């Protein structure tokens, strides 16, 4: 008898894991209907693609797992009503009041039970956190906002509002694009919270964290650079209460190799009063659920990030889900904000259950958006974010290759022209790394320019471009390791203190070739290359790997045909890694389609779960 799941797995339309999960259900109940096994395989497949659940309505009543090119016929799914009824009565489905089972049906969303639990627990914990009363001295807060932000002026100062929200609410989110002042704002939030604690008798225990080592290092640098000056503070002890180092979330939670459970959890909570997490868009659902589980009962949580960036590599889009329902503040919150900030906020609609703790920053102080002069990164980022495909392509054609003296340049690129273009525009910058006299100078040259790609492999992927750059460097890049070689760690090594995403340089020293990596104290650590955990050469890196990083100039290389990986959010994220200049290579038609028709949509029930608790 024909087995469509096995056929799909053989053809690569399903992972072997997905098909085996469906087969596993037969070991629990040999009578599990084919429609249930199909739904289970698709739910597992969706999880592998970043979705938390299977949206039955999106798959019901159509043919799935078909590929005419490979002569794979696929199979038809039932209608939505019939499928829902079959799933509801299946023995492998968890029911209210019943024992645990592999699958959970919640409305029209089908979950693997573990991920349904993650989602429910996160929603419940955030809802409980938001419902707590945060003890705040309002006159002290008003005075602090005046000292740290100055006079409010005539318009709404959203940085000032965001700071007030983060002090007034035990759970707060500050979302904004690059250059909107997120770190500037939260450095003042930390000072305000320290003032509140000291006035009450003890400075709060504050911790800073981020998803990756690179993001943690950037947060460390940013907080140090944006701390308020002592004359703006009531008490010098405020600065002593603000930590100077951020750590990765895995280090914060005490990840243990080979064990799923972190050292800090509900039974052994974190020792802190305030936790600030940067680059929150990169945090997946399981990690965020475990993080909030490990918070002490009265702790504050502040999430910092850009809701329009790429979602996490793993399953979920937590920051986007949380921000989706934040359309405004409740009347009570608007009144309190007006009292402490001196600003009257607009009534822009009904607020969601978590919305009183969420603030959006829109004004970029880094990029020029409108006005005289050539169009810049800010304007292009806004067009991409808003799905304006035609306008995006028109702007890129306007700047063209002559944009070297502005913020943008564009070049239509195909496979035939790629090698020559890299030799012309990228090779001199990477040769400068090798020719630097000191390793610190080489690091500075590396951070000034990076190639970003949408794909991992292929001629337009990071792997293919890395190989091409090495070939172009010729004798300068011989051997497994060589002088001036940039390397990126791809697996955590807790013993060495090297983590996935850390970038270093191989450099010739008196002791031979050594791999140098930035240290928390702004110095360098070096290792024998043979001791490094899994790593790869990194002249080019994927946009996903670049999250949490910024470069003075970048080259964004896009594939010459549409790809499921190439999305609106990926373009936006890649472009906004540039601080000063971005060059984009790609085909106008592909870019237009990507911006107009390919937003990232991840199936999830987190927003619905939070909303249900708020009713």
Strand order of the largest sheet: 9-8-10-11-7-12
Shape estimate: globular
Helix coverage percent: 40-55%
The tally of strands reads 22
| Main sheet summary | 6 strands, parallel
Structure, described:
With 615 residues, this protein is α/β, with parallel strands linked by helices. The mean pLDDT is 89. Strand 10 (274-277), helix 13 and strand 11 (300-305) form a beta-alpha-beta unit. The longest helix has 19 residues, at 113-131. Helix 8 (158-168) runs parallel beside helix 9 (182-200). It starts with a helix and ends with a helix. The strands form five sheets. A six-stranded parallel beta sheet has the order 9-8-10-11-7-12. A five-stranded parallel beta sheet has the order 13-22-21-14-20. The protein is built from 25 helices and 22 strands.
In short:
The chain contains 25 helices and 22 strands. The chain is an alpha/beta fold.
Question: Keyphrases for this structure?
Answer:
615 residues, 25 helices
How are the SSEs placed, and which strands pair?
Elements: H1 4-10, H2 16-28, H3 34-48, E1 54-55, H4 56-59, E2 63-64, E3 75-76, H5 80-88, E4 93-94, E5 103-106, E6 109-112, H6 113-131, H7 138-149, H8 158-168, E7 171-176, H9 182-200, E8 206-210, H10 213-226, H11 237-241, E9 246-248, H12 249-252, E10 274-277, H13 285-293, E11 300-305, H14 318-324, H15 331-341, E12 358-361, H16 377-385, H17 389-399, E13 408-412, H18 415-425, H19 427-435, H20 439-448, E14 449-453, H21 462-473, E15 485-489, E16 503-509, E17 512-518, E18 524-527, E19 535-537, E20 540-542, H22 543-546, E21 551-557, H23 568-575, E22 578-586, H24 588-597, H25 606-614
Parallel strand pairs: 4-5, 7-11, 7-12, 8-9, 8-10, 10-11, 13-22, 14-20, 14-21, 21-22
Antiparallel strand pairs: 1-6, 2-3, 5-6, 15-16, 15-19, 16-17, 17-18
């Amino acid at each position: 008898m024909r087995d469509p799941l096995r056929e799909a797995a053989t053809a690569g339309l399903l992972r072997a894991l997905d098909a085996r999960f469906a087969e596993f259900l037969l070991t629990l109940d040999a009578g599990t209907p084919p429609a249930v096994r199909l739904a289970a395989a698709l739910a597992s497949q969706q999880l592998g693609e970043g979705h938390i659940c299977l949206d039955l309505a999106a798959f019901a009543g159509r043919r799935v797992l078909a590929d005419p090119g490979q002569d794979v016929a696929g199979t038809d799914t039932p209608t939505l009503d019939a499928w829902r009824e079959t799933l509801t009565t299946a023995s492998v489905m968890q029911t209210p009041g019943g024992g645990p089972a592999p699958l959970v049906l919640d409305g029209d969303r089908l979950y693997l039970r573990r991920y349904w639990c993650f989602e429910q627990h996160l929603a419940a914990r955030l809802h409980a956190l938001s419902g707590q009363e945060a003890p705040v001295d309002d006159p002290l807060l008003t005075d602090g906002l005046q000292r740290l932000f100055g006079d409010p002026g005539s318009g709404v100062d959203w940085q000032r509002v965001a700071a007030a929200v983060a002090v007034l609410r035990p759970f707060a989110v500050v979302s904004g694009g690059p250059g909107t002042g997120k770190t500037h704002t939260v450095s003042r939030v930390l000072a305000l919270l320290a003032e509140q604690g000291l006035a009450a008798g003890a400075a709060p225990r504050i911790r800073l964290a981020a998803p990756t080592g690179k993001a943690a290092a950037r947060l460390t640098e940013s907080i140090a650079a944006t701390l308020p000056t002592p004359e703006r503070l009531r008490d010098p002890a405020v600065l002593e209460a603000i930590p100077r180092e951020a750590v990765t979330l895995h280090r914060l939670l005490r990840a243990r190799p080979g064990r799923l459970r972190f050292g800090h959890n509900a039974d052994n909570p974190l020792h802190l009063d305030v936790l600030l997490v940067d680059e929150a868009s990169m945090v997946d659902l399981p990690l965020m659920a475990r993080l909030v589980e490990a918070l002490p009962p009265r702790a504050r949580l502040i999430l910092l990030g850009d809701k329009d960036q790429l979602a996490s590599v793993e399953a979920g889009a937590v920051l986007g889900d949380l921000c989706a329902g934040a359309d405004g503040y409740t009347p009570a919150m608007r009144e309190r904000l007006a009292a402490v900030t001196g600003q009257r906020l607009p009534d822009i609609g009904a607020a969601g259950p978590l919305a009183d703790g969420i603030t959006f920053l829109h004004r970029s102080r880094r990029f020029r958006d409108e006005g005289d002069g050539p169009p810049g990164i800010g304007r292009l980022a806004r067009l991409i974010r808003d799905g304006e495909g035609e306008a995006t392509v028109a702007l890129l054609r306007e700047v063209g290759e002559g944009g070297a003296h502005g913020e943008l340049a564009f070049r239509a690129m195909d496979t035939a022209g790629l090698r020559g273009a890299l030799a012309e525009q990228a090779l001199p910058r990477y040769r400068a790394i090798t020719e630097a006299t000191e390793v610190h100078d080489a690091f500075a040259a590396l951070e000034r320019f990076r190639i970003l790609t949408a794909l991992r492999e292929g001629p337009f992927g990071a792997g293919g471009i890395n190989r091409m750059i090495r070939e172009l460097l010729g004798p300068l890049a011989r051997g497994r390791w060589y002088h001036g070689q940039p390397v990126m760690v791809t697996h955590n090594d807790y013993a060495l203190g090297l983590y996935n995403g850390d970038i270093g340089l191989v450099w010739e020293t008196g002791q031979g070739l050594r791999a140098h990596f930035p240290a928390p104290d702004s110095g360098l650590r070096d290792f024998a290359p043979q001791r490094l955990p899994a790593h790869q050469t990194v002249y080019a890196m994927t946009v996903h790997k670049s999250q949490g990083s910024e470069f003075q100039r970048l080259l964004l290389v896009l594939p010459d045909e549409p790809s499921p990986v190439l999305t609106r959010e990926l373009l936006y994220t890649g472009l906004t890694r540039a601080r000063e200049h971005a060059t984009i290579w790609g085909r106008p038609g592909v870019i237009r389609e990507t911006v107009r028709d390919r937003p990232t949509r991840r199936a999830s029930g987190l927003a619905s779960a939070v909303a249900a608790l708020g009713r």
